Amino acid sequence: QSALTQPPSASGSPGQSVTISCTGTSSDVGGYDYVSWYQQHPGKAPKLMIYEVSKRPSGVPDRFSGSKSGNTASLTVSGLQAEDEADYYCTSYTDRNNYVFGTGTRVTVL
Amino acid sequence: EVQLVESGGGLVQPGGSLRLSCTASGFTFSSYWMSWVRQDPGRGLEWVANINQDGTEKYYMDSVKGRFTLSRDNAMNSLYLQMNSLRADDTAVYYCARKWAGTFDIWGQGTMVTVSS
């Protein structure tokens, strides 16, 4: 199972928006609404930010939003803040009862 | 507080074995699927395996099938990963995670496994 494709990096100034893409296939992202996004700060465990494409767990700011079109899912962070600087990973359920993660995107707040 | 705590990582020679443990607290462990996810700095995050609530269904990533075995003890609120025939490319931080709504909503702090001679 190949990893989902994410851009290696993305950046924006405080207050701006940044959007990260996550491209898979019809066997994973395109076939199921089980796409999630995780935030990971250095040396820390991943934290769930978005699940089922666009739902936010309790406590996650509404500045974080998710969407999907075809085989590509996206995470948008609006109103960028310094604490949003982190690595972001997507993941999707697949048709082999497995899960596949994205390659990861480093978000830098300029 | 909902918490997962992993243990059992360490340095092991190629071909060796290691058993990871994960102890859950703050939620009804027996009601959830559980998973292991690993992270190699060079390869990012990788899903390793899932187990259902009573341990009767297990799924593994292709590269660990036949070498890794997932089990759980609901009475002890514990999840285990028996890793045999370890290879250098198994080197990673191994995270225990709770599986919920098609995602991994709670993660442990991770335990490092290094396979090297």
Kindly report how far apart the N and C termini of chain B lie: 39 Å
How many H/I helical runs of chain B? 0
C-alpha geometry of chain B: globular
In terms of per-residue confidence, which ranges of chain B show pLDDT below 50 for 5 or more consecutive residues? none
Greatest chain-chain contact: A-B, 25 and 20 residues
Order of helices and strands of chain A: EEEEEEEEE
- What is the chain-wise order of helices and strands of chain B? EEEEEEEEEEE
What summary fits the major beta sheet of chain B?
7 strands, mixed
User: Structural class, from secondary structure content of chain B?
Assistant: mainly beta
What's the total helix number of chain A? 0
Approximately what portion of the residues of chain B adopt beta-strand conformation?
over 45%
**Helix coverage percent of residues of chain A?**
under 10%
What is the arithmetic mean of pLDDT of chain B? 96
Structural Rg of chain B: 13 Å
- Helix percentage of chain B: under 10%
Report Rg of chain A: 13 Å
| Contiguous uncertain segments of 5+ residues of chain A | none
Overall body shape of chain A: globular
Q: What is the chains' assembly state? A: heterodimer
Largest sheet of chain A: 6 strands, mixed
If you had to describe this structure to a student in words, what would you say it looks like?
- The complex is a heterodimer of chains A (110) and B (117).
- Chain A is built from no helices and nine strands.
- Chain A has strands at 9-12, 18-23, 35-40, 47-50, 64-69, 72-77, 86-93, 99-101, 105-109.
- With 110 residues, chain A is mainly beta.
- In chain A, the strands form two sheets. In chain A, strands 1, 3, 4, 7, 8 and 9 form a six-stranded mixed beta sheet that branches.
- Chain B is mostly beta strands and 117 residues long.
- Helices cover 0% and strands 56% of the residues of chain B.
- Chain B is built from no helices and eleven strands.
- In chain B, the strands form two sheets. In chain B, strands 2, 4, 5, 6, 9, 10 and 11 form a seven-stranded mixed beta sheet that branches. In chain B, strands 1-3-8-7 form a four-stranded antiparallel beta sheet, with no helix packed on it.
- In chain B, a hairpin with a 6-residue loop joins strand 5 (44-51) and strand 6.
- In chain B, 38% of the residues are buried.
- At the A-B interface, strand 7 and strand 8 of A face strand 5 and strand 10 of B.
